[in-house]
Amino acid sequence: MVWRYWTEPDHITKWNQASEDWHAPRAENDLRVGGKLLTRMEAKDGSMVFDFGDVYDVVNRHEVIETFDAESSNPVEFQQAGWQAIMDNFKAYTEQN
Questions:
Q1: pLDDT per residue over 73-86, tens digit each?
Q2: What's 83-97 look like in SS3?
Q3: What whole-number distance in Å separates Cα of residue 33 and Cα of residue 19?
Q4: pLDDT confidence bin for 32, thresholds 50/70/90
Q5: Long-range interactions of 7-16: CB distance < 8 A, separation 24+
Q6: Is the pTM of this model over 0.85?
Q7: Count helices and strands in the chain by DSSP H and E runs
Q8: CA 63 to the chain's CA centroid
Q9: Per DSSP, what are the bridge partners of residue 49?
Q10: Measured between alpha carbons, how far is residue 40 from residues 12, 23, 45, 61, 64 in Å?
Q11: How far apart are CA 69 and CA 67, in angstroms?
């Protein structure tokens, strides 16, 4: 169940946001080494939108490990807080379903 919720686009769109004023209306996931994960992030008020992407280096079925590489345009602490909120949403979504 955890693997499905983490990898299937229909589930990703339900938990992948850092706060209540954002949502993820679209996700795509090519679950293979070299494959890409794409999630569209949008502010619910329409003020901002961006596509977040990852490329898989390793795929071990039923093993959920996420690494975080900070970008340079926002403070690391801000990014860590956002990622922690997303992880907390994933945990809550998994426990509720």
A1: 889 999 899 989 99
A2: HHHHHHHHHHHHHHC
A3: 30
A4: very high
A5: 7/31, 11/93, 12/39, 13/39, 14/93, 15/86, 15/89, 15/90, 15/92, 15/93, 15/94, 16/41, 16/86, 16/89, 16/90
A6: yes
A7: 3, 3
A8: 16
A9: 42
A10: 10, 8, 15, 24, 21
A11: 7
SS3 36: strand
Other C-beta atoms lying within 10 Å of the C-beta of residue 50: 10
Indicate the residue type of 85: A
Tokens of 18: 């850092």
97: Cα separation from own chain's centroid: 18
Kindly tell me the sign of the dihedral angle through the C-alpha atoms of 21, 91, 63, 7: negative
- Tokens 């619910």 belong to residue: 44
Residue 66 is inside which H or E element, if any? none
